[in-house]
Amino acid sequence: MLTTLRLTALLAGLAMAGLLGACATASPTASSKSAAKALPLGSDSGGDATTEPAPFASTYKPLPSQLTAIVGAHILTATGQDIETGTLVMDEGKIVAVGKDVPVPMGAKVINAKGLWLTPGIIDSHSHLGVYASPGVQAHSDGNEATDPNTANVWAEHSVWPQDPGFNRARAGGVTTLQILPGSANLFGGRSVTLKNVPSVTTQGMKFPDAPYGLKMACGENPKRVYGHKGRAPSTRMGNVAGYRSAWIAAASYKRKWEDYRAKIANGEEADRPERDLTNDTLSGVLAGEILVQNHCYRADEMATMIDISKEFGFKISMFHHSSEAYKIADLLAREGICYATWADWAGFKLESYDGIAENAAIGQRKGACVVIHSDDPIMAQHLNQEAAIAMAAGNRLGLAITRAEAISWITANPAKAMGIGDKTGSLGVGKNADFVLWSGDPFSVYSTANQVFIDGAKVYDRKDPHFQAQSDFELGQPGEGVHP
Question: Which pLDDT tens digit goes with each residue over 252-270?
Fold first, then answer.
């Protein structure tokens, strides 16, 4: 960890020169409380989640890094700044300065980035890497627990296969952080997990420390189709809504029982300890504001209905995913502080996506909404910069004048905000994790590639150096193995 004394000394030296460039941080949509406080409401020993370690805790340890200055790069900070010739200084995994004419600290390693572009690391807020791992065979189909409309009890991290070659390919595309989600077969699909995109043999070794969990929900065609075909509820959209409301009623009751129990124990009274329930542990964590709702939803009318449900039960939706019709209610989403994640031009592949348009993201940007470009696909995860470029170009053809400084936030700062980690990563600002990408050219050009990728100040990918091109054990010894320039 960067010591307070060392950080203070570095900042003081830069500030005395009058050249310190600082960027504002992106505020998360919900408190980035430790995931330990969301899990569980009580333990089998009768303890309290606030005093007990969370199960499946992160074991991630940053790779070694050193005091380094990236000099001469064209920098997009994802805070609105576009610096044509700038410098970024990092030490012990953190950014200590970024701006134009920032002095290089004595003893720093210098990387000459003249002609290169520097952006925050890309964050894929909707990924199924690891839970639908490559190769795409039935043995790797672990994303949908399609056995009940409410499987809030399952956690995506327990399906993640760290050896999925897709993680390496995404890293070569500049992806430094991913939110791994369950699939969308169910009304409540389970918990998401946020991962650092580093090679590891365990999921815990990739797990982003203190990132809040998400709850994957799904509305629309998927749950009603999956269970309607089984002759079960829901089989209609009104059945979907009834299923949500019934589940939240049960979760609210469960939460009250635990609160009453804790209050009595705190007052020294005798009380019967409620029985643990994994499904309601997750849902009550949402009601407590500790788990963020990540909601698969395409149609504008259904998003509005989900907002009504959230108000009925007192929780907040952090982000709608796919959201093909978000542009129709962009003002509502902006007013409610709900981000929406979408693609550039995926539309029409099923009826609820029929009204998807390439201008979706740009319209939301101009309406003041928090816009995100996501992948939901292992191939697109390698090209999210290009997907953002397509969305930006579509908006500009409409006359919306979207700038690169704005569009870069769609794949960096905004997903970090919606995932509750915007105080740690997603933009280039003092104190943030040194997660960034050096691009061969304009990242919104189809001709540009990610040359080098850094996570917590350590280089984890280099297009020209095989020593920084990790390979999955699964691919070793196979023809065409690994990631190549």
Answer: 999 999 999 999 999 999 9
Contacts of 76 (CB under 8 A, 6+ apart): 82, 83, 117, 118, 119, 120, 404, 405, 408, 443
Q: Domain range for residue 187?
A: 28-60+122-424
**Is it the case that residue 357 has pLDDT exceeding 90?**
yes
Residue by residue, DSSP assigns 104-142 as PPTT-EEEE-TT-EEEEPEEEEEE-TTTBPSS--GGGB-
| Domain contains 233 | yes
Nearest to 13 by CA among 102, 73, 98: 102
pTM score, two decimals?
0.90
- Other CB atoms within 10 Å distance of the CB of residue 46: 9
- Closest by CA to 142, choosing from 108, 193, 99, 177, is 193
In a domain, 433, yes or no: no
Give the domain CATH number at 304: 3.20.20.140
Residue 375 within any structural domain of the chain: yes
Over its C-alpha atoms, the chain yields an Rg (Å, rounded) of 22
On the question of a cis peptide bond just before residue 55, with omega within 30 degrees of 0, the verdict is: no
Tally of domains within the chain: 1
204 domain-assigned: yes
Tell me the residue type at 82.
D
